Amino acid sequence: MPVKLGVGMLGYGFMGKAHTNALKKIPYIFYPFPAEPELVTICGRNEANVREAAARYQYQKWTTDWQEMIADEDIHIFANTGANDIHCEPCLAALKAGKHVIVEKPMALNLVEARRMYQAAREAGGRGQKHIVAFNYRFAPALRLARRIIAEGRLGRIYHFRSAYLLDRLSDPTTSFFWRLSKEKAGSGALGDLNSHAIDMLRFLLQTEVKSVQAWNHTFNCRRPNGSGQMCTVDVDDASMIWLQLDNGAMASLEASKVATGYKTMWRIEVHGSEGGLVFDLSRGNELQFYSKGDPLYLQGMRTIHASEPEAHDYAKYWWPRGHNLGWEHYHIHMLEHFLRCIATGAEVTPWGATFADGLRCQEVIEAALEASEKGGWVDINHWV
Ligand SMILES: NC(=O)c1ccc[n+]([C@@H]2O[C@H](COP(=O)([O-])OP(=O)(O)OC[C@H]3O[C@@H](n4cnc5c(N)ncnc54)[C@H](O)[C@@H]3O)[C@@H](O)[C@H]2O)c1
Description:
25% strand; binds nicotinamide-adenine-dinucleotide; 17 strands
């Protein structure tokens, strides 16, 4: 019999929808599955909106009080898809209350919060509770394949990791102010929102740590109107560039921008080693480009691998017949499948999923990038644990 896992969801926006969508699909796509998620309660601040969201997503209950939700014994998993300033305290409370916790990225608003969250998760882990940070791209078929190719040594000694995560959502200076543009609510801008994914992906793919960081975070549009036309100060970056020295001796550069006019969501990752190279482009997410110096000279060149095929990806067998593509939503579905399966079977969340330890590592780099951008020069990462 599958174990029933009641879910309490904080947030009903973009990510609340992505997580709920995943929870609904998992039992029938991955059938037979060891867990049966139950949509118990959804929480938000606005009563009318959260009531509507509960009806639309089919949660049994709704509330505007996350503490009440966390105290509910019918809830086994607390899913935190709220804005960044509401990650820490509810996660700490949920871990204390014995819940398994999934939190959206970046895990915390700052390093102080991240350390508290990591500590609480470590203690909860000792009591059998699972925790995961929603770095969903770890569950993209092509990026899972990239990790395997690198781990098999097919790229040889790694020289470069390069990421460009570019959007144009803020390129219009009149775009309204919202929570992501406030340091108090978001922590940072393109850095924490987009480059957090790149930092985690770098660690996931190369299985190395960041040693030292140089950065330039910049705000192009410092004032924006809010919904009622009042001008508000933007105190986070629109764009972030980071240079990183890695423990494995490689160089990395991570560029993230929300003012990259013409790009909706463009994420390109390139890895170069002594024996080959890899390219991932989110807009062609089913494919991975791979170059091998081991090929005969007359055949050398980037080849395109269809990464959603069963030979390339261990989730493929659950989906469609060969050649039928997967998309962005599937990364969230795979991530939640992994998390629920780990809870039901006791398997480890790491290395496929990002635990709160990975969330802390990412926050260390974000904090160092903030410091480096302010002071200039290299900032070393001093790992807390
Ligand atoms: N993994 C990804 O690919 C990805 C993509 C987008 C966003 N995110 C992350 O997901 C989180 C949410 O982002 P989003 O785009 O869904 O935002 P959103 O604005 O669409 O939704 C935020 C939700 O948080 C709720 N909320 C905010 N403050 C609250 C409070 N004090 N109490 C209760 N509810 C509160 C809001 O009601 C809303 O439902 C952020 O941490 C963001 O960085 C991750």
